[in-house]
Amino acid sequence: MAPQVVFVTGGTGYLGGRLIPLLVARGHRVRALARRGSEGRVPAGAEVVTGDPFDRATFARAVSPGDTFVQLVGVPHPSPAKARQFVEIDLRSAVESIAAARDAGVAHFVYVSVAQPAPVMHAYQAARAEAERTLLSSALHHTIVRPWYVLGPGHRWPYALLPAYWLLERLPSTRDGARRLGLVTIGQMAAALVAAVEHPAAARVMEVPEIRTLHTRINTL
Question: Across the chain, which distance is largest between two alpha carbons, in Å?
């Protein structure tokens, strides 16, 4: 795969901090958006773009035709109590990013959404689903990645649910839902995002079962 220019929002966060070093190590040129005062948290090797993820006018000039755009901005530790934040942060930043990418003529847009439908976190699903619809209407080539819960540092409590998942995935009546809403690790997510960047598609959706398999194909993880 030829090196690409990758513009990343949310590069100082949970997923971005893992993804950017991998992209840099694989030879890609990364531009990472950071709000003023947070520039020092951008992983080494990335070019820092200072701007506001909620105002595309502050970063649109740093997005070039042919770039890959990876949208990672989101509310940390989502919970039902954060319904308003899902609209004000997750959805708003996605809408601004999609507009900037569309206007710049980027080659491929990668969006981290959420597995759906699900019996809980309805406001979270609604905000991410609305962002997906905005992306589809933009006509951008895109990959949508749909995890449910990403296990990693500071996000380990669902490990206690693994025995229940093991059982639910083996019962015919619950198998499909348990697999679609299964847990993935941060390493698996980072690998899925690397794969999305390096194998652009006109329109692709990665669900949890595919996210889990990609970890073994990205041999740097």
Answer: 52
Distance, in Å, from the CA atom of 74 to the CA atom of 96, rounded to the nearest integer, reads: 13
Please answer whether residues 190 and 18 qualify as being in contact, where contact means their C-beta atoms are separated by less than 8 angstroms.
Answer: yes
Contact predicate 105/122, CB 8 Å: no
Q: What are the structure tokens assigned to 133, written together?
A: 């619809």
Strand positions, DSSP E, 22-117: 29-34, 47-50, 68-71, 108-112
CA angle 83, 133, 70 (to 5 degrees): 80
The answer to whether residues 59 and 34 touch, using CB atoms and an 8 Å cutoff, is no
∠ CA 119-120-126 to the nearest 5 degrees?
Answer: 100
**Angle CA 204–210–216, to nearest 5:** 125
DSSP single-letter state for residue 155:
B
Per-residue pLDDT tens digits for 72-125: 999 999 999 999 999 999 999 999 999 999 999 999 999 999 999 888 899 999
Provide the sign of the torsion angle of the four alpha carbons 33, 94, 107, 105, taken in this order: negative
Asked, as a colleague might, if the bond just before 117 is cis with ω within 30 of 0, I would say: yes
Amino acid at 127: A
pTM, to two decimals: 0.92
Amino acid letter, 43:
P
